[in-house]
Fold Related to O-methyltransferase.
Amino acid sequence: MDAINLAKAADEAGRKKALDALRDLQHTIETPYDVLQRFAGLHLQVATARIGVDLGIFEALHESKEPLSVAALAEKTGAAPELLGRILRYLASVGQIKESSKDRFGSSTTTAVLADRNYQGGIHHFFDIVGPVVQELPDFLAETKYQDITDNSKTAMQKAFNTELPRFIWFPNQPRFGYFQQLMTVQRAGALNWLSAFPFKEELGDFQGQTVFVDIGGGFGHQCIAVTGAFPELAGKIVLQDLPQTLAHVPAIGGVEVTIHNFFEPQIAKGAKFYYLRNILHDWPDDKAIIILKNLIPALGPDSRVLIDDMVLPNENVHWQATELDLTMMSSLGSKERTDEQWRALIDAAGLQILKIVPYTAILNDSIIVAVPK
Ligand SMILES: C[S@@+](CC[C@H](N)C(=O)[O-])C[C@H]1O[C@@H](n2cnc3c(N)ncnc32)[C@H](O)[C@@H]1O
């Protein structure tokens, strides 16, 4: 087997290590000029991806059986041929599409990803929301004299969008919120799902209550779909909760009750088996995360379990995909990705105790933290 096939056949941890090794190799052989050029293009990559999304270029190339000419794409998109040719040439030079011959372009592996509507939501979100916030971050931190950001109404996001509202109050009313929800449905796609490691059936035992699974802030309900897919017999015992603005975008999901619920108010579904929070607490600074958890306690029955699905960061050698998310959380939400120690302190402060932590992805260490009242 050659090196490429070996890397492709590796498990998730091996694959990520191979990618990081390739990056290190690339950096090792770069000249100072190459280093500078790498930074020079960072903004352009996502901006041109968005142009490609807006023009439908990725779908067109992905769906076409053969490479398309600039003229054909210009006719299809209405863009001026010369302008389009320059954009396509750039996209091909960075691997977002493939140049097959003079003025003809086809699909690369990246094109196939960018042709998908949900990944396109990600490109929009990174360019439209994350980009402007990150752009403000250096000046914001300089103004605060580089102090910790712990107030979610005083972050680079408020500066970027000229608002005083915290992100999740401001954002659901923005037209671009739908893109974020699309991104959420594919975040970690391809990686192992929590149900592959968490012994759901065993934990459920002979639980007799009406509600088995409450997906709190569950967005488009993709984890409810995963649970009903794995355990069809639980249809009718699964609840999806979120804000009305989010639920307005959610089509009916068979076997799932969709309920408006603000997690800053006491939990309305009583005595369920699992109260599941996926990528919720990492959105909030400690004081707010504690309120979200405390709001669950009065609803918990003797068999209830709180399941927190988030990354549990190791104490050293944190992977760049986790550090990237951590700083994104900090810039927009004044929140953080938490280490094992930080999770334990937070959960304790909320009046809960950890029964166990079940990691389900290597490297990023996405985990289910199982907690009950102290
Ligand atoms: C990072 S997304 C996670 C979505 C989903 N759990 C997932 O893992 O894809 C955060 C979710 O919290 C929801 N949310 C934000 N504030 C909320 C609130 N006060 N009450 C209920 N849901 C809220 C958002 O609408 C969004 O769906």
